[in-house]
Automatic annotation (TrEMBL):
Originating organism: Ornithinibacillus salinisoli
Coiled coil: none
Keywords: Amino-acid biosynthesis, Histidine biosynthesis, Hydrolase, Methionine biosynthesis, Multifunctional enzyme, NADP, One-carbon metabolism, Oxidoreductase, Purine biosynthesis
Alphabetized SUPFAM superfamilies for the sequence: Aminoacid dehydrogenase-like, N-terminal domain, NAD(P)-binding Rossmann-fold domains
EC identifiers of the protein: 1.5.1.5, 3.5.4.9
Reactions performed catalytically: (6R)-5,10-methenyltetrahydrofolate + H2O = (6R)-10-formyltetrahydrofolate + H(+); (6R)-5,10-methylene-5,6,7,8-tetrahydrofolate + NADP(+) = (6R)-5,10-methenyltetrahydrofolate + NADPH
Binding annotation for NADP(+): 165-167, 231
Domain Tetrahydrofolate dehydrogenase/cyclohydrolase NAD(P)-binding positions: 139-279
The organism's taxonomic lineage, starting at the top: Bacteria, Bacillati, Bacillota, Bacilli, Bacillales
Pathway linked to the protein: One-carbon metabolism; tetrahydrofolate interconversion
Pfam family, one: THF_DHG_CYH
Protein name, per record: Bifunctional protein FolD
Record function comment: Catalyzes the oxidation of 5,10-methylenetetrahydrofolate to 5,10-methenyltetrahydrofolate and then the hydrolysis of 5,10-methenyltetrahydrofolate to 10-formyltetrahydrofolate.
Length: 282
């Protein structure tokens, strides 16, 4: 293996220590940061991510509340709860854990959250601000990826970044953030023909497909930086990314592991956004 590992778990821990001090200062000014998370249904992965958010919040001194709702809750009821939270001055950040049950229109829910409390950075107003390079809440996973690259002083400006995946929460916004950093960005997706033609030209390859181990060293340019956003649970219960780690690590210069890569950074950036919301910065 030649690649250096970018360990998101360790970096997230460092960031939490810095944020803990920031929260102490904020509390001295009388502001008690609060994150309210809404969990609908009993998807075990969602439940475990929400637990991770509660634990990380407690570590930095952010007060967190979880509102648990049955999978049969109506969209109307969920909207009513969000409207109440929007009006509650003690709540700084609101997050609805995704995915939602099929009968609830995800976009209606995202758009109901006040943009000033949208610590996920998913509201169209915040997405628009991000696109135009304004200060706003950045979507947590893309923000985490940029923070990981910067933590290793990996050059972004002028580099060719190839992203595989075009979801609203990862693929599209990470491309925009990298464009804001002056990278040249190519988006690939399930309908891209001859994927390798693109990926082998990438200085930085970001993989967010949701298929275990499908990207190996044959898809890489020598010394590429590989960011694996995939989290796939195998039948034996273990977690693996979208990238065949050992194969890719033999050719890459830097690589993120799964677990302990991008995932923990998603939660760290959520805490960052919550502190920003508590400071009233948007
Ligand atoms: N409202 C949101 N919903 C979802 C988001 C989001 O940012 N906002 N992202 C994902 C899930 N997610 C956070 O919510 C998330 C995923 C993974 C991790 C993480 O730390 N993963 C660990 C492994 C954990 C495990 O053992 O399962 C790792 O990669 O090391 C944190 C958060 C979808 N929904």
């Amino acid at each position: 293996m030649s690649a250096q590992i970018i360990n998101g778990k360790d970096l997230a821990q460092e960031l939490r220590l810095e944020m803990k001090e920031e929260v102490v200062k904020l509390k001295d000014t009388g502001v008690n940061p609060n994150l309210t998370v809404i969990l609908v249904g009993d998807n075990p992965a969602s439940r475990s991510y929400v637990k991770g958010k509660e634990k990380a919040s407690a570590q930095v001194g952010i007060q967190s509340e979880v509102i648990e709702l049955s999978s049969s809750v109506t969209e109307e009821k969920l909207l009513e709860i969000i409207h109440k939270l929007n009006e509650d001055p003690s709540v700084h950040g609101i997050l609805v854990q995704l995915p939602l049950p099929d009968h609830i229109h995800e976009q209606h829910i995202i758009e109901a959250i006040s943009p000033t409390k949208d610590v996920d950075g998913f509201h169209p107003i915040n997405i628009g601000r991000m696109m135009t390079g304004q200060d706003t809440f950045l979507p947590c996973t893309p923000f985490g990826i940029i923070t990981m690259l910067k933590s290793k002083s990996i050059p972004i400006a002028g580099k060719h970044v190839v992203i595989i995946g075009r979801s609203n929460i990862v693929g599209k916004p990470v491309g925009q953030l990298l464009l804001n950093e002056n990278a040249t960005v190519t988006h690939c997706h399930s309908r891209t023909s001859n994927l390798k033609e693109y990926t082998t030209k990438a200085d930085i390859l970001i993989v967010a497909i949701g298929k275990p181990n499908i990207i190996d060293k044959e898809y890489l340019k020598a010394n590429a930086v590989v960011i694996d956003v995939g989290i796939n649970r195998l039948d034996n219960g273990s977690l693996t990314g979208d990238v065949d780690f050992d194969s890719a690590a033999s050719k890459a210069s830097y690589i993120t592991p799964v677990p302990k890569g991008v995932g923990p950074m998603t939660i760290a950036m959520l805490l960052h956004n919550t502190i920003k919301a508590a400071k009233g910065l948007t």
